[in-house]
Amino acid sequence: MRNLIEQQMRTLQAAQSRKGQHPDIMQSREMTIMQFMFQQKISTINPIQNPVRTSFLPPAYPPSVAPLDMLQTCMFKDLMLETHHRGSYIVLRAVTPPSLMLGAMLIVEDEEGDVVQLTLYNQDVHLTGDGRLAQGTVMVVKEPYLKVVAAGNHAIRVDHVSDIIFVPEYDPIVPLSWRPKVMNADGSANDWKVAGNDKFSQGKYHQAIDCYSQALKCSPSTAEIVIIRQNRALCFLKTHQFDAALRDLDGLPEPQPSKKTLFRKAQALYHLQRFQESCEAHQALALACPNYDAAKAEFKRARERLKEQKHGRYQFKQMQAEARKRSPPVLDRATYIGPVAVKHTKSRGRGLFTTRPVQAGDLLICEKAFAYVFSDIANPDQHRSILINIETSEMTKGVDVDLTPLAVQKLQQNPSMAPAVTALHHGSYNPVTVSEVDGMPVVDTFLVDRILSNNSFSCPRSSREHYIHALRRSPKVELDKDSPSGGLWPMASYINHACHSNARNAFIGDMMVIRATEDIPANTEITIWYRAADYDSMPSNMRHWGFDCTCVLCQDYRETEKSATSARKSEVADMHKALSRQVPHFAKAESIISATEKTYRRPALEVPRLELWEMCLALASNHAAHNNPRKSVKFALKTLESLSYVVTGAELPYVPGTQLHVEKWGMLQGRAIRCWMILARAYIKIAPRLVSQAVAYARLSYKMWLGEDETFDQTIDLWSDRLDGLIDSAR
Ligand SMILES: C[S@@+](CC[C@H](N)C(=O)[O-])C[C@H]1O[C@@H](n2cnc3c(N)ncnc32)[C@H](O)[C@@H]1O
């Protein structure tokens, strides 16, 4: 990676030395086109198996915010290398079909016939399939950037999707010589509507939108306006431009909103997650057209979303099943924001705070990802892309590379969603303040990239699946770690990090479920882990996020003598040796635990003991496996104590009438579920009345760790052959 960055830095410096020069034109127009077509042909005849695609993000530059009529037209011969031509635009026509790599690459010409390579980043993957970008397409690049590329060549590079406008052949900006000889640009509104319908039936929705827009400019009658806008709204729904669909449907000149208007409006509102209004539109539709069956199912769906959004009522079992079956595991569910609010913290910017007291296990947030990319473990070669940000020296790998284009497109399609995303933490990046120009949204790719770098989460297909694989030590887990899925969850992005946190975020497909992992008073900051605390690398390295963690755990590791932490590490190794013999050396293991305990400076109640809890759990498991329930209870309880839990009523001998109770919750770990199950199984013979209480705590820990407990009974069973209670057939 360092080599790649250094090499690219040298290329960049060499390129910078040519800044302001006109490019050397080494070959003829024909040769440039032929060479490009030849390479395209070679790659289709002889494709490289699973190519690793490496790309570099140039130093950040702002998107164009100038209205087109404030810009001057220019030609290729006016362009200079390594220069953003502010104040200019260039009209280009594709002379080759595009080739899709990490961006869309093609050869274009200007009005004078000069050719140049054009590379478009962050564009919709359907751009070439739906006919928007093909040989012959005319486009306007605002404030073009001519960049030196590999081997000293040059290309016009467009990083911001709002810097390029694809124009239909009849647009006045298209040079006369490029317009088709026979053109019905002066057709009637009806002609354009028919042309739009034709494009619609071919699935060319963007081109249909252009036709309908042209129809609206041709003095249509009131009745025609209604039909054209309804049709255009349908195209906007198909292209996921829900804001635009709503705009078309709102205030149509109809005496009463028609069936089509209401239905399409309800759909647009649904996809904008405005479920209350979607239900209202459905309600009006149900009154007007009680027998409209297609709408009934949609209305039911909208009501279910509303219930989730308002009350946090989800069918988690069904969600888990869907996440397991679907690829990508994108779930049709609403976001619930529970008893939390964004507030300013003293020293960590904004944070999320409780608005009322909550209990361990309570649902705080269940959020649908704004953008989500899925890494399919069954197909690990699917994404072998690497994106290197030269400015920040950060590398993005695998499917994460697709997250920026996805988020950028979504913002461009639905600008009403932008404020929730652009308000997220973006460090020192200085974005443009203009959000719309010429009626089109302005999307700053580099801002989105910064936001994702600071706020995106990596995730498994589901935390439950990950947990089950981890218990079985499936190699799949490793694969998952190498190239995880990822996404952006805007509300969760306000949560600050603490190694010893009071909440946990679990995943079910593209839904993030955040629950309290302890009882939290009102008006208290919620924290989660960005990275799990690992005693091998404490204090946690949070350099990527630009802060040093100051939680009690990290503070304690900073203040602990190096000799004490290295002693603990060697005790961990000794413990492993003592327990991995055919007959475990129990006495030795106990003496290691006593020795390790002495290396801690502060009580476990104040600072969890990372090395110790693992040792205690290992010993509890070994005692359970060797049929020593009393000892396994002793060390299971010591595991919890090492994690800062205060548990009462669990000690032996059992005193009739006592209840097992967690007085204070400690640092939640996935293996706490195993610990509670070891306790439950040990109690079967020696304190049967405590069994169900220990299972209840296993269930609650499961709920906090995996986001729900509806699948507990199909995953964990007291009578399983395994110590951790995992049911063999659980998947
Ligand atoms: C995902 S954002 C969290 C929300 C952020 N505080 C805000 O104002 O939008 C991550 C950023 O929050 C800050 N942050 C998170 N946890 C922190 C902590 N424990 N200490 C200091 N800063 C923290 C860092 O600046 C980090 O890059």
TrEMBL record:
This is SET domain-containing protein. The keyword Plastid does not apply. PROSITE patterns: SET, TPR. Keywords: TPR repeat. TPR repeats lie at residues 189-222. InterPro entries: Gramillin-biosynth_MTr, SET_dom, SET_dom_sf, TPR-like_helical_dom_sf, TPR_rpt. Residues 338-531 form the SET domain. Pfam families: SET. It comes from Aspergillus versicolor CBS 583.65.
